[in-house]
Design a protein that fits this description.
- By secondary structure, the chain is an alpha/beta fold.
- Helix content is about 40%, strand content about 10%.
- The strands form 3 sheets. The protein has an 8-stranded mixed sheet.
- β1 and β2 form a beta hairpin.
- α4 crosses α11, α5 crosses α6 and α12 packs parallel to α14.
- It is globular.
- It starts with a strand and ends with a helix.
Amino acid sequence: MADDGNGSPQPSKTPYEEALDALSSLITKRTRADKSNTGDRFDLLFDYLKILELEEPISKMKVIHVAGTKGKGSTCTFTESILRNCGFHTGLFTSPHLIDVRERFRLDGVDICEEKFLAYFWWCFDKLKDKATEDIPMPTYFRFLALLAFKIFAAEQVDVAVLEVGLGGKFDATNVVQEPVVCGIASLGYDHMEILGNTLGEIAGEKAGIFKHRVPAFTVPQPDEAMQVLEQKASQLDINLKVAPPLDANLLNGLKLGLEGEHQYVNAGLAVALCSTWLQRTGHVGFMHTEHMNSLPEQFIRGLATANLQGRAQIVPDRYIDNDRPGDLVFYLDGAHSPESMEMCAKWFSVAMKEDSKQQILSYQPQDNSQSSHELVKRHLDASARKRSTQILLFNCMSVRDPHLLLPRLMEACANHGVHFKKALFVPNVSVYNKVGPQSSLTDSQVDLSWQFTLQRVWENLLQANREGDDKSTDVGEDLKDDTEMCAKNGENSAVFSSLPIAIQWLRDSVQRNQSVRFQVLVTGSLHLVGDVLRLVKK
């Protein structure tokens, strides 16, 4: 047992917790756009590569580099899955993580194990610490994670390294790669404007910073303003930028994409183009596919159908609800956080919740085949058919994002599909900015809820403005009017909770009180919120 300095014994930390503490020490409160943030200066990355002896290994790495506003993580996931199913030893670096930092580093489709993570982590951390000076300080959090990814992929001798840009492109830590095999730009939109610029053209210019001289590059259909800038930047580097068409669902031979949502066909199309070009340029012509072919290689289909990415169009039933009442509380999780992705998220939720309601009625399986079990099935089908579904929104977003852009898009797209939320719940994230790991949370009394109150006001004002129309979401319903003392602030159609666990408990209590209701909860606005919910619900 360790001592906390006041004579009170503290539980000893595990080696993994010690590593997370060391990683947390690299997080700075200053924004990524702050020019005084010396450790984040791009040219320092090349000093770090020299210290870590990574210059030559990176130059030999067969990299696929992907930037974009939305869909870049999904594109990378599809890409890795396709090439892994082609038999290659794959490395995938993505961000952010949802529950465990090791999610950012996948080897052959699996998060890096704790033992390997610790070995590579301390090798990098100690080398950089030993060489740190005032001119070359320790790298900041994301930069260190990118360096760690390069070390892991070099040491593990992966055949292909698939790299998702963290932010922007030109000055992102992953952009130390000088000669990738192929680059991709996923869908562009408005996000991180405080750093990347206020127009689609400026944002596209930052993303195009990953283009390299004569290295093949692909993008997806983009708004004209963005496409013009991408084409101009590509032309300056002697690149024939190609637009990958959305994947034709018929090419999957009856299978579905592993990631849900119609927008994933855009990301899958880009992934197919990136993989085909990577295979061609690395001399593996046996798996070749061109956009003019009317079939996909079997390995491509398998890779697309089995791709998996947490927190994007993910459906998770609450495991704390009684086994004899399956599906009474279901979380629909999507880390959408831009206006465009809000609309995609709303469309997915509107379709998925209706399909899920039907599935709940049909999927009940008894434990045995006896007469009593058949009676149970009959009773379950009768009860399920009588249950009404209630939709709840659980929302938070970063304060740099504009809820006046996000929430109307979400509400309108849901309403267009006949979905009206009975109640919107606004909560702070559990995780805090300066700590990595399961204990990274504040106590309820420390939380400033002013941002959540702002989100609630925006939501209530939107509903008020819609009242003259046929807005069903203003009818809260008797089933949600109890236990309001759990809320920090309760509105007619919304509530602010001082913590996520309290909000989850309120939902569970509501389910117990209302056995004729099935609660379908859309969790969106922030990948951090999605990760926090997963951590609580999947325990």
